[in-house]
Amino acid sequence: MRNSTTRFSNRVDNYVKYRPHYPEAVLTFLENDLGLAKEMIIADIGSGTGISAELFLEQGYTVLGIEPNREMRERSVALLKTFPNFTAIDGAAEATTLPSSNVDVIIAGQAFHWFDPEKTRAEFDRIVKPGGYVVLMWNERLVASAFEKAYEQFIIAHGNQYQQVDHRNIDTPSIERFFAPQQVLLKEFPNQQVFDLAGLEGRLLSSSYMPSKSEAGYQSMISDLQILFDRFQKDDRVTIHYTTKAYTARL
């Protein structure tokens, strides 16, 4: 299986343009229900191009972005350069390079399924301040509408290792085991993206398990994508719905 720290290196442009962001309701929940406050320092583990960090930076939070992939980390620096309270750090979930008891909150957006759970839990315990908490977030693509069901089958047919690396392999019991003996709270929020054909192609190519333009299978995939889009489009658009899941626990 391709190294998880390099598999997105040739996907950065599409990742930036076409990956879903997180609804502001997530931040409202963290502030109102868990006491997240501006003076707290956040470590965004597996921060990628900065999609999850941006949600907090826009509201004035200080975010340390821990990202092992050079191309994604450098893009986050470029995209978030207007936020002086963002720092990108070459590190990983299992070895962040942060000092002990350094951060108030740890977040991981669309990244936890790439981590080694045992080593990551030890590192989280080390870097978070006493009483700090962890937020694991995913935009989970739904398979509910006729289009979404057909799109899922399309990905299975054309993808490489999709079912092995799908984040949905990490279920609630897996997360509860990671945090044990601490109690885990799950909060869900609706989210969606609306795409024309070019946008749907970009969303598809942002995923590491789909053939890139230089790989075998790309042309047949794009031909089938056109057929799929033509079948389900309304006013030249299709909609992908998500449930944004936020698992939270204090350490």
UniProtKB/TrEMBL annotation:
Residues 44-136 form the Methyltransferase type domain. Keywords: Methyltransferase, Transferase. GO terms for biological process: methylation. CDD domains: AdoMet_MTases (cd02440). The keyword RNA-binding does not apply. It holds the Pfam family Methyltransf_11. One of its GO terms (molecular function) is S-adenosylmethionine-dependent methyltransferase activity. Signal peptide: none annotated. It comes from the Bacteria. InterPro entries: Diverse_substrate_MTase, Methyltransf_11, SAM-dependent_MTases_sf. Belongs to the methyltransferase superfamily. PANTHER family: METHYLTRANSF_11 DOMAIN-CONTAINING PROTEIN, METHYLTRANSFERASE TYPE 11 DOMAIN-CONTAINING PROTEIN. This is Methyltransferase.
